[in-house]
Amino acid sequence: MELRRPARSYSIRQLCQEFDCTPRALRFYEDKGLLAPAREGQTRIYSARDRARLALILRGKRVGLSLTELREILDLYELPNGGLRQNAASLYKFREKLVAMERQRADLDSAIAELREGIAALEERLAVKCPDLLPQAADYDLVLRRQLDGAEPG
């Protein structure tokens, strides 16, 4: 007697809760051919395969992969040794993204350093030429930081 694991299925609500995404996002991935849930009338029934694909899609999105890149990686699973091919393609894409992000971080670090130098020079100039404006600059900085952090300026 062969024991088989029962096929696990998921509702759109279950996947949305598990992966903290919206039904609209799942329908979008379905429209793009990345997910293919079964249907019972209007109800979508997601398989364990759909769940695994969604996990890969969301991970790929977090690291900046495009939908085209994600489709290429997901489609590899259907080929012989698909899981291994999928892993190799993911490794290549992840390394590629890592190099690009490290380059972006270096550019950001350089821009931040330049801004800090500019701020220091402006503060120094204000301190010498018009010291009464310097507290206003600090107040403006505080208001701006609160706005960027989502807090109401007080």
SSE layout and pairing:
Elements: E1 9-10, H1 12-19, H2 23-31, E2 38-40, E3 43-47, H3 48-62, H4 67-75, H5 82-129, H6 134-148
Antiparallel strand pairs: 1-3, 2-3
Give a summary of the structure in a few sentences.
With 154 residues, this protein is mostly helical. It has helices at 12-19, 23-31, 48-62, 67-75, 82-129, 134-148; strands at 9-10, 38-40, 43-47.
Describe the structure.
The structure is a single chain. This protein has about 150 residues and is mainly alpha-helical. It has a domain at about 10-60: Multidrug-efflux Transporter Regulator, Chain: A, Domain 2. The chain has six helices and three strands. Strands 1-3-2 form a three-stranded antiparallel sheet. Strand 2 (about 40) and strand 3 form a beta hairpin. It is elongated. The mean pLDDT is about 90.
CATH topology of the domain at 8-62: Multidrug-efflux Transporter Regulator, Chain: A, Domain 2
Which oligomerization state do the chains in this entry correspond to? single chain
Distance between the termini: 72 Å
Helix and strand content put the structural class at: mainly alpha
Largest sheet: 3 strands, antiparallel
What is the count of β-strands?
Answer: 3
Fraction of residues in helix:
55-70%
Number of helices: 6
CATH architectural designation of the domain at 8-62: Orthogonal Bundle
